[in-house]
Structure formats: structure tokens, C-alpha cells
Amino acid sequence: MSNRPWRAAVAATALTALLVSGCSGAAERPSPTPSPAGSAAAPSSSAAPPAGDPAARAAALVATLSDEDLVGQVLMPYAYGDSATKVSAGSAAGNQALAGVDTPADMISKYRLGGLILVGFSADDPTKGNQETTNVDNPKQVHDLTTGLRAAAGRLAAGPAPLLIGTDQEYGVVTRVTDGVTLLPSALAAGAAGDPKLTEAAWRAAGAELAAMGINVDFAPVADVLATRSTVIGSRSYGSDPQQAAAQVGGAVRGLQAVGVAATLKHFPGHGHSADDSHQDLPVLTQSAEALRNGAWPPFSAGMDAGAMAVMSGHLDAQAIDPGTPATFSHKLLTDVLRGQLGFQGVVITDGMNMPPAKRWAPGEAAVRALNAGNDLILMTPNVGQAYDGLLAALRGGALPRTRLVEAVTRVLTMKFRLAETPAAQMSTLNSPEHRAAADALAAAAVTVLRGTCGKAVTGPITVTSSGGRDGTRAALTAALTAAGAQVKPSGGTIVHLVGYGDGAKDLRPDAAITVAMDTPYVLADAKSPTLLATYSSSRASMTGLAAVLTGKAKPSGRSPVAVPGLPATTCGT
């Protein structure tokens, strides 16, 4: 279903909320009297919004909130600790430095937070620069954590609207929860498969598992078109063709949101149009406005039309539109273009405010600038107390218009109430046969032959080798080959060599009969093997699909979604 009618409804309801509460002063609100960073007041029984339309419920609730509550609802920081209320001494120290509290639950209570992002590390993670800690381990731990976080948020004045709990579960190289869940192949693999229905089914399965663990916002899918050889975006993108990527993004959005998880299109206005890394510096987009409109924005528009509830603004300098200003802080890009030209009226979320392009300003000033530009949620501020105090001071001093803050909070609460309408799946669905089958189907359809005979099975024993540090993936392929009936030997067989994220010519094996690219396939241009394959992903599902192709049990039907010099998109016909 298109998101455009909902976008119009939210805009109209936000206007109603502004008329109700936007012109009133702080003294006219039911406001507690602690210091700006004081503890939250208990929710008033009169604050319970009426049942019915989420936007109407949001407007009713917004009208009851104090200044402190409004400011808290636009903050979505990270926290240290794998439990809401019991953390290690080290995690408590981290939370004290970040927010002046000991636990994640304390942080929610003190700052009346609208949401929290769960963070963590994964292998080959290009976003590790802004992952300060990890608080995801296994599904049960995540479920217990999210349950505790929601309990703390339920005691706030905004408690009738459930806490937003998000994470970066893109699958592929950026995957926060990796154990005990169904792991999809990367976005680039889905692009190679080229079937939005397979993508939608896989993301529906994955989304159900996120919801079961208590996560209701996924900072995915990546809507960036891979117009450059960006290593920070790479296989996180669905490919270099804007229209084909658009179809895949739409499928992912529909799958996620069908099971009650908000999809977040990122990174507007298009991180794939620069090869630089915003985790290190401010990437510059040198393309014309028309080139961005035609080459970068189709996947964002498709995601919006599929109903995407959120868009993430990127720390990107689009010189043709607002030169020198990161998009995160650009009114021209977020309000004039994203909302005005593209018509999006859902929730706009900043990229991590702990990244270098956002840290050119102090946390309070950065948060105010981001809200005034058109963001509705401030993600991963480097200091929660400073961001909170800065926003509150700007609201009371006039630097942050009350109408802008009320509009942002109305959007946030509307999304919360919409998400609450869909019951979460049970934990028993995690990594179920049905979910694995959806991931397997997508991964199998992605396997591509870029050199060699289409679908030719390997005869005789197979020896699996890999570039350094990929023992787990090598073991996964060995197991999949064995299950498919192949004989795998430590040496002496047909050599199948695996390369992945960050690998180059030095990681290739000249004597390999078959070289397989498990990330972007560009490295295959330097490979000498007579047969070149790509899975674009090292997930278990991708290794199962690869084994089926190597043993002749499946035809490799994928097409490379990016151009590799000297190689066709596939040797398996057109």
C-alpha cells in the first residue's frame, strides 16, 4: 500500500496538534518541575489517548506533554549494558560518561526517551567506527533487554506510545544480531537474484524475528544506489541500477512492515554516490541535482510508495543543492526536497550523531540544528545530557520553534501507535524452517557465473580454501557441500577459493579452479580461475546455494547487479 495517503494524514494531524499545543507556553502545560535533566514525572491518567487512528492518538497525547517530555521523545541514543537494569561496572561507567546514569533504564527515565538503538559489532563491519559498545548477544538476551527497556518507558508520560527500539539489521556485513536468527544474504545478493517477491518474503521472515525479540525499528533497507565503488556501502546496496534497486527496496519495506517493524530508508540523499566514508569524514556528492533525482532517489521514492515509515538522513554534502552542509543539517534537502519534492511526511532520523561530520558542533547545538533542518529523531548523540539540555534551552529560548518540535514528536508518536497495531511474533519462530527456506530461496537465486560454463557441476573431490580469517565460512561451505553429496578433502581436490569483504588481488589464489566472491564482485576482474562465481554474501544460506550450484543440483540464475570490468553480468544467457 502506498505511503502517500498516510503521509498526508500525518501532516494534517500534525497541524491539528500544532493548533492544540504549538502556541501554548511552558507554563500552560501539565509540566513537572525538575531540572532539565531531572527524573521523569509519573504519567497522568488523563494522558491516555483515545483508541482509534494512530495519528489522532498521537495528536491527543502530544497535547498533554510537558516541554521535558517533548524533548525526550526526539532522542534515540545508544546505551551500555546487555540488561535494562543490571549492568557491569564498565557499562555503568560508560553510561555515566554518556548520560550521567548507571543503566539503560535509568537513561530512559531521566531523559523521557522516545527510543533506544541496540548496537554491536559484526565481522567485516564497515560501520564499526560508530559502534562504541555492544549490547546484543543472543535472542533471549535481546528479548529480556527490550522487555526491560519498555517497562521503563511505560512509566513515562508518553508511555501509552511504546518505546522505539531499533538496530542496524541489514544482513550481510552489517548485522547486529547474528546468533540464533535467520540470516538473509546481503542486499547485493538480493539485487543479483532480481526477484522482489523473494526479497519481500525473506524480509518478512527476518522482520518477524526482530519483532519477536522486541525490536520494532530496523535501520534498513539501504536505498543507496552503488554508483561508485564505495567500500562503506558496497554489498549493503541492491546494485548500481536505480530502477532495479528501487524494486528491491520496495520489496524489503513491504516485508518488514507487514510484521510490525518500521523500515528506514537510508542514507538520503544517497551515500552510494560517493566512495568516501561518512564514518571518517564528510563525503561530497558532486552530481547535479538532476543526476541525483534520476540516479539516487528512485529507491527512496519506491520505498516511500511501499509505505516506509522512516528515512535516515546521511552525513553527505550534496553540493548541487546545499554545498558545504551535511544533509543531516540541511533544511533544503530534508524539508524542501525530501518532504516538499518527494512528499515524505513520515519520521526522518539522523544518521549517528557520534560520527565526525556531526561532531563539528557540540551535542546540544547539533541536535537543535538537526531538528530545525527537518529531522524528527536524533540518533546516537555523543552526550545525551548535553543534547537534552541544548534542545530544552533552544525550545524555551526560541531557537527551536515549538511548532517544529511538536511536529516531530507527533510524527514519532504516530509511528509508535502504528507499530503497536501489529502483534509481535513469538520467539519460537526464530530460525524456523519456514524462515530459513525464505532466506535460502533468495540466496540460491543470487548465485552468479561471471566466467565459465553455466551450471557445470564439479566432478570428483573438492578442496575449499579462503582468504585469511574466513574459517567459519569455509566450514559452512564444507558442511553444505557434504550435505549435497560432494566429497570434500583438505587438499588434492578441485580448489574452490573464497574471497570476501575487503579482499583484493593479493587474496586471490592463482591455482584455484573456481574463485567465489562473497561481497562486491569487483575483485573477480583480477582472478585467473577458469570459473568465477559470486554469492555477494557469506551467510549460511549463501553457502548452501553455492553448494547446490557446485554439485549441479541448482542452476545459477543470478546476474551481477554491478559491472565488473572484462566480465559479463552472467554467462547463463540473458
Automatic annotation (TrEMBL):
The keyword Amino-acid biosynthesis does not apply. It comes from the Bacteria. One of its GO terms (biological process) is carbohydrate metabolic process. Keywords: Glycosidase, Hydrolase, Signal. Transmembrane segments: none annotated. Residues 25-53 are annotated as: Disordered. InterPro entries: GH (IPR017853), Glyco_hydro_3_AS (IPR019800), Glyco_hydro_3_C_sf (IPR036881), Glyco_hydro_3_N (IPR001764), Glyco_hydro_3_N_sf (IPR036962), NagZ_Beta-hexosaminidase (IPR050226). Residues 103-414 form the Glycoside hydrolase family 3 N-terminal domain. One of its GO terms (molecular function) is beta-N-acetylhexosaminidase activity. Belongs to the glycosyl hydrolase 3 family. This is beta-N-acetylhexosaminidase.
